[in-house]
Amino acid sequence: MTVHPGAWALAVLLGGSATALPAQSRFFARPMAQAIVSATSMDPTPYGGRLTEVRVVQPVLMGQAGLANGRLLGTLTLNLESLTIPDGELTLGAWGEGYVDRRHPHTTVHELLLEAPDLFGTRERGGRIGLVAGKGFVPFGTDDPMSRPFLRYPVNHHLSQILERAVLITQLERGPVLLEGALFNGDEPERASQWPLLRLPDGTARFGDSRALRLTVRPVSDLELQASIAAVKSPEHRLAAGGNVDKWSTSARWHDQPEWGERYLLAEWARTDELDGYFRFETILVEGALRRERWSASYRIESTDRPEEDRLQDPFRSLRPHHENSILGTGCWTLHTVRITHDLADPAGPLSVIPFAEVTMGSVRKTGGGIFDPTALYGRTSLNQVSIGVQMGWGMRHHRMGRYGTSHSRPEHSHVAH
Amino acid sequence: MPPMLRVAPLLLLLSACSTPVQAPIAPAIVAVVSGNNQTGPVNSALAASLTIRVVDDFGEPVVGRRVRWNPVLGGGTVSPGENVTDANGRASAVFTLGANPGANSARATVDNANPEIIFSATATGVVVNPTPQLVASIAIPATYGHHDTFVRDGIAFVCAWNAGVYIYDVGNGIRNGQPHDPRLIANYVTQANGVSGGAQVHNAWWFHNPTNGQKKYLFIGQEGPGTVGSASSGDIHIVDVSNLAAPVEVGYINVGGAGTHNFWMDEARQILYAAYYNGGVVAIDVSGTLSGNMSSRIVAQVKPGGTPGTYVWGVMLAGGRLYASDMISGLWVLDPVTLATLGGGNNVPTQYVSDLWVAGTTAYTGGWGTRAGTRGNSIRIWDVTTATPVQLGEMAIPDATTVSDVAVVPGGAALVATAEGGAGAGLYVYSLANPRAPVLRGSVAVTGGLHTGEVAVINGRTYVFVAKNPGSGNTPEFRVYDITGALTP
Hints:
The complex is a heterodimer.
Chain A: H1 5-14, E1 27-43, E2 51-67, E3 72-79, H2 81-84, E4 89-96, E5 99-103, E6 109-116, E7 127-136, H3 157-160, E8 165-174, E9 177-185, E10 207-217, E11 223-232, E12 245-256, E13 261-274, E14 279-292, E15 295-308, E16 326-327, E17 329-342, E18 351-367, H4 374-378, E19 382-395
Antiparallel strand pairs in A: 1-2, 1-19, 2-3, 3-6, 4-5, 6-7, 7-8, 8-9, 9-10, 10-11, 11-12, 12-13, 13-14, 14-15, 15-17, 17-18, 18-19
Chain B: H1 3-16, E1 28-34, E2 38-41, E3 50-55, E4 66-73, E5 77-79, E6 82-84, E7 90-96, E8 102-110, E9 113-114, E10 117-124, E11 133-139, E12 148-152, E13 155-159, E14 165-169, E15 183-188, E16 201-207, E17 217-222, E18 226-227, E19 236-240, E20 248-253, E21 263-266, E22 271-275, E23 281-285, E24 292-293, E25 298-302, E26 312-318, E27 321-326, E28 330-334, E29 341-344, E30 352-359, E31 362-368, E32 370-371, E33 374-375, E34 378-383, E35 390-396, E36 402-408, E37 414-420, E38 426-431, E39 439-445, E40 450-458, E41 461-468, E42 477-482, H2 484-487
Parallel strand pairs in B: 1-9, 2-10, 20-24
Antiparallel strand pairs in B: 1-3, 3-7, 4-6, 4-8, 5-7, 8-10, 11-42, 12-13, 13-14, 14-15, 16-17, 17-19, 19-20, 21-22, 22-23, 23-25, 26-27, 27-28, 28-29, 30-31, 31-34, 32-33, 34-35, 36-37, 37-38, 38-39, 40-41, 41-42
């Protein structure tokens, strides 16, 4: 059976009823839509006390499609946060793309990828070569937090993932070992509507100025070990005039789905060196989740270094691009997050209505020198954030954002993830 | 009657005489054609020329009759001072009014003609536009843009981070440049010296050595990575600019564990003072030939706020004292020879201090960033009559976060400040009719803000050479503003 690609695309865009077919079919499509309505209260905020906001976050239209029995895959993720949270989402410790203490809105075209997970059809012979091209995550570090159990992004988002880049990935899989190499553009986006810069005004290629390598090993079926490195050219200065960044990451991830529910555990360490190591930021994060039928509980602890920069008039924003290579100091954020959810719909069905409550508590302290003073900024060093809301979704569950092609074709239908 | 017939008897008489005689000039009549009773600004030419017409008794135009033009009242000028009537019997002149508002007049006198003509005019006060006028704008490569400018002898050294230093003729003449038409002489990128981030050309000082008349060395500050308040990096690079078109780096100065920021010089003593952030203030002997590693030329160093507690932004020599603005500990007064602290310090606990300027017994400092919730969007005014600065007042620049540069114009008529961060970012000019109570005269908002402003007087006009910040969709630029209008009382 075949479905006209145009009909599939229309169905995905409308969040409608595209025909979902098994991967073994010549063509399949898996649409998905999601939005989270959340009331979040953070205390304290920079130079202020408690602040409470109600927002629609992570409004996403997503689709995956396959042709030729899964030999050619496509992934499209449209993120509408530029409409719902143009000023970002209150998030303890968050930083990146000029936002501080708020997570930045993601680019509207968040993922747009063509994937050939088995380019030469050699899977049956024990190995395969994959190729992925488009816009999305670089094969570095761990999965994007959007496809993990929590609403709240961890502080280490920009240490542990490289997102929203034009990327070309080659993959070599042999048994339980997967090696991925990627070329991409170094610049992170400055605004939600911006595309990756492929070429500088003087004609120099921006695409390909940055590289990543990730090794994934699955010694047993539910355990995944990962180590990766990346060299990113001037991520915070679009025109490539900023400092370069070297990144390392390693992690262990367990995920299985026994009959009674689901288990998930992730432990990761990552490090980012800026300007040849003049600045060094590290993170350790452990998170886990248990689901039993419709209930799930999750816990995360992280200890993450954050570069502290001067704020603009809006205390939730910092200057992009930088004018110089200085920071105010480094904050070490230690945060504990607990989340409880209950799926009101059938977990096996396409619809999900999941009320949740999520609490983050922790502290920030200054490490090293500099004028950064958390007490002066927040009034105290202990911080907390509470969110309640409903996550609503339709269609397939999140794919593992950051895992494409050869990785991607190992579908996981996680329910503890969003 | 045709004119020739009218003069025929006279010609006949002349031809009969053996001795040539001056022909008598026939009487004529003068009348005003246009230009009377005009009004215009002082020191300006009237819009319409003064025009008269000379005719004879028969109303015919008198050609070639000499007319003399003179100012009578108001002290203006009339040009030309003398001319002759044309084929229509007309003659014209331009009347430029005097310097003071009020009545002006000019006279036209025609040989053997009546009457004497008096043109009246009224001079009004000039309508001064105090808003800084943008006269030049040059895009700078987006390598973090343009940070600081040094202007001397009509040459502007534009410090453009990893794009190096751009040398422009802005009135010197060697490239026929003007402030409104800067002409590039050279571009030069200094060495990285192993400092992360590259050349990072931040500021400069062109040393005019009075002891030997040389204008050989350009000192360039490299602003490497740093952690504000505790760490910094970057060297002073010494560039031979004997030939401005072909600069050559010849040496450098390194202070271990610290990086340089703004400069000042005691050129007579051949001492370069450098703010060195956490390294404090450093005095360097730059006499003689400079080559290679000149770090041994450091003759004095002080960390006025202690260790930690020192992060010096700028220095300035004035009135026999050296002043230093420490972001953390405030305004200091130092001995220019020993760098011993004479007074001041720990006097701005609520704000990070940025740049400074001293004029006579008054000093001005800017603010930076946010300290314990207090923005750096203000200028503090200090009495520096003694070696202990006393704060006299503070002026806020609304909707900004940082006052990134302050400078007093030559002659002391105005204070210029640049501001960053927020809608209030831009260029501000304050009257210093009372130096201790500046009054805003003019300002211009600049999206993205201005990082620095260097004042120079060229061809009698006062300009500010500014560094316009980069930003998303915002090109960094080297800009020139004419602020002469803002200096007129």
